[in-house]
Amino acid sequence: MNWTVDRYDLPLSNPFGISRETSETSETVIVELTHEGTTGIGAVTPSAYYDESAQSVAETLPALCETVGRIGDPHAQQRIERDLAEQAPDQPAARMALSIAVHDLAARQLDLPLYRQWGLDPDAVPPTTYTVGIDSAERMAEKVREAVDNGFGHLKVKLGTEDDRARFDAVRDAAPDAELRVDANAAWTAQEAIENADWLTDAGVTMLEQPVAADDIDGLRRVTDATDIPVAADESCVTASNVPRVADACDIVNAKLVKCGGLRPATRLLNAADAHGLELMLGCMVESNASIAAAVHLAPLVDYVDLDGALLLEADPYAGVPLDGDVFDLTAVSAGTGVRRTTNA
């Protein structure tokens, strides 16, 4: 088995702001595995919030690729996941990139799209939201109008500033008919979130994501109990083992491959949340199609999709699952995740 690891600094079409940072590039690591003439592609955009970086991932992946090479069979996914978790227990982003490449390779060898290998229904994919990052109120309104004009009816609005109300009102005025979801990225206290939820409810917001600090589970519960807006846990729920602690403190769990270490761990997180009666969501970072596409194949399992990361890039050397309006068309994938290289840039 042969492999390559490459890094890309992918430019964003606009600076992307959340409550704790603003990004202008997506620091992406791509891994390609070739076995018996077939190549699988995986990628990750690691987050400093979870203590990983493009450099740490790029330094870790060669040793993980060697492990996969010694196993020698991309279909031995249980063993691969176990061995990689033992080798790099605190580096889920690095494991994620290789998990995607292995699954892509195995499905391509079977000449099946990944969703069909798993037996999932391509018609069950929910529409994806389009995320509007923190910016001036005027610029956020412009972005919202562009998104609606491009066919997106579900918008996620990033908040967590000293002037959230003005920003949100500008967005709502610009898109009076759109379904709006709000993500504070852990920026508010529980009391602030409860107070904000009053006017967000009046404005018709349909989801409030991670309103409080990740470790403030009691605060998350207070917010959930105080508002009729469904509350989602993101930073508070990283892996399946976290689900029991948030199960009575939220309504929705947001699964991201970068948090939990790949496709199989993400599936376990979704299954655990479902078993606890929670609604399910798939999220992402601002990242390449080389990683987004794999998550799309899990989308038939969830109630909400937020997989717009590649749409926020100015340039992406990979294409993924095509969009039909605001819904990913899995039936267009012939094999694997559907990722293909489009440029050497």
Total helices: the number is: 12
CATH superfamily of the largest domain: Enolase-like C-terminal domain
Share of residues in helices: 25-40%
Mean pLDDT: 97
CATH topology of the largest domain: the name is TIM Barrel
Q: Report the principal-axis shape.
A: globular
Family: Belongs to the mandelate racemase/muconate lactonizing enzyme family.
Pfam families: MR_MLE_C, MR_MLE_N
Cofactor: Mg(2+)
Organism: Haloarcula japonica (strain ATCC 49778 / DSM 6131 / JCM 7785 / NBRC 101032 / NCIMB 13157 / TR-1)
Structure write-up:
The chain has 345 residues and is of the alpha/beta class. The chain folds into two domains: 2-112, Enolase-like, domain 1 (2-Layer Sandwich); 116-341, TIM Barrel (Alpha-Beta Barrel), CATH 3.20.20. 37% of the residues lie in helices and 22% in strands. The protein has an eight-stranded parallel beta sheet. Strands 1-2-3 form a three-stranded antiparallel beta sheet. A hairpin with a 2-residue loop joins strand 2 (21-35) and strand 3 (38-44). The mean pLDDT is 97.
Quick structural gist:
It is built from twelve helices and 15 strands. It is an alpha/beta fold.
